[in-house]
Amino acid sequence: MDKNANYPFRTPAYVVDEQRLTDNLKILRNIALEADCKILLAQKAFSMYSLYPLISDFLSGTCSSGVYEAQLSSDKMPGRENHIYSAAYNPDDFAHIVKICDHIVFNNFKQFSQFYPQIRRSGKSRKIGIRINPEYSEVKTEIYNPCSPMSRLGCRIEDFPEALPDQISGFHFHTMCEQGADVLERTLKHVINKFGHLMVYPQITWLNFGGGHSITQPGYDIKKLIDIIKRTKKEFNTEIYLEPGEAVAQNAGILVSRVLDIVNTKSGKCAILDVSPACHMPDVLEMPYRPPVLGGFEPNVKPHTYILAGPTCLAGDICGTYSFAEPLAPGTEVVFCDMAIYTMVKNNSFNGMKLPSIYTKNTSGDYSVIKRFAYRDFMSRL
Ligand SMILES: *Cc1c(COP(=O)(O)O)cnc(C)c1O
Question: Which of 19, 38, 99, 261: CA 20 to 30 A from 116?
């Protein structure tokens, strides 16, 4: 190990800080208590199940986007609420979903009609919801906008049947992405305008406000959120669910990498790292966005500017250009911030890249290895 290294493990590695995760979870639990609502972990953002015992001390359960997430919830957070939504269920999986999920949200009434008989025959009491598309979203990034004209996500009011089937007890909407309580307030107005006449007690007993709430970001208006929830509960006499992903583990993890080589490009020096945006932080390329780097500034703010890039053969496997106070050299650690969410769950081993190890840092500052990956993890999927 390099004697200059700040971290006592090999790179690349994700490190999730339990204190920071707990800080987020406390904020969420306080909201749930004050507003008398339920908050679920959206596993699609963060599925690090070694921390599910901690998370389940603070949240009511999980929501899943696919059958394996639902299974993980059933295995690793047993006895807590297990919600699922999918744009279309696979008939091969549905019997199992009925077995393990207590809330099942359908994307439209065709899906409901196709699968409801299986729920009835199972004899299990399952809460059934419909995802609605209020056709109002303030999401500017098209790839994340569930209300775009091409969106298949959720049922528009014009596609509702004349009479709401009486097995439906809840509605779900998810139209936000990294947004504040003011956006929720405006969205809810549209939801109520379009669907409020259907949100009638005693048939409708729960509403799910989805994810995309930046609750654990500084400046988020928590009081407004609590007011909105209380108001809606009172107006419609329903239970309210939130299912944040990002907000649960926001800023709770880092990705520690190391410089392998420095090369010259026509646009300046490039530090080739042992991590790849394409493999290990895919949202950097998909969204796209510029990930924060510890001690990294905008280009030319500090004396030493580098393009940070992965070692793969993908020309565009680039994080961005950053400047540093000290020069980078082979062996220098480069730390990417806010890397707990939408990373481990999206990892791939394109180019035969290694998957980063997963560590936790406990409240005393000690690191524990949760998982190390090897060749077999690459091979076993092919
Ligand atoms: C993605 C998603 C979430 C979580 O979104 P965040 O932006 O991570 O809070 C919750 N519910 C549904 C239906 C989703 O698709």
Answer: 38
Ligand 1: residue whose CA is nearest its atom 2: 211
For residue 340, the model assigns a pLDDT of 98
Could you tell me the distance, in angstroms and rounded to a whole number, from the CA of residue 176 to the centre of ligand 1?
8
Q: Ligand 1 centroid vs 70 CA: distance in angstroms?
A: 15
Q: How far apart are the first and last CA of the chain?
A: 32
Nearest CA to ligand 1 atom 10: 211
- The DSSP output letter for 107 is S
Mean residue pLDDT of the chain comes to: 97
Q: What's the pLDDT tens digit per position in 269-281?
A: 999 999 999 999 9
Find the 83 Cα to ligand 1 centroid distance in Å.
12
pLDDT in tens, 159-207: 999 999 999 999 999 999 999 999 999 999 999 999 999 999 999 999 9
Using most ligand atoms within 8 A of CB, pick from 38, 63, 208 the residue to mutate for ligand 1.
Answer: 63
Calculate the alpha carbon distances from 72 to 44, 49, 79, 83, 102 in Å.
11, 8, 12, 12, 14
Query: With 0-12 CB in 10 A as exposed, 13-18 as middle and 19+ as buried, what is 371?
Result: middle
Residue ranges lining ligand 1, Cβ < 6 Å:
42, 44-45, 63, 65, 85, 174, 177, 210-212, 243-247
Name the residue with the closest Cα to ligand 1, atom 5.
Answer: 211
Count of beta carbons in the 10 Å neighbourhood of residue 161:
10
Closest CA to 177 of 195, 153, 201, 160: 153
pTM reported for the whole predicted model: 0.97
> Domains (ranges, CATH) in the chain?
36-249 (3.20.20.10), 253-339+347-380 (2.40.37.10)
Cα distance between residue 81 and residue 59, in whole Å:
9
Q: Measured in angstroms, how far is the CA atom of residue 308 from the centroid of ligand 1?
A: 29
Mean pLDDT of the region 139-157: 95
Question: Which residue's CA lies nearest to atom 15 of ligand 1?
Answer: 174
Task: Scan for tokens 């060749």, then name that residue.
Answer: 375
Give every CB contact of residue 335 below 8 A, 6+ residues apart in sequence.
254, 255, 256, 257, 293, 294, 295
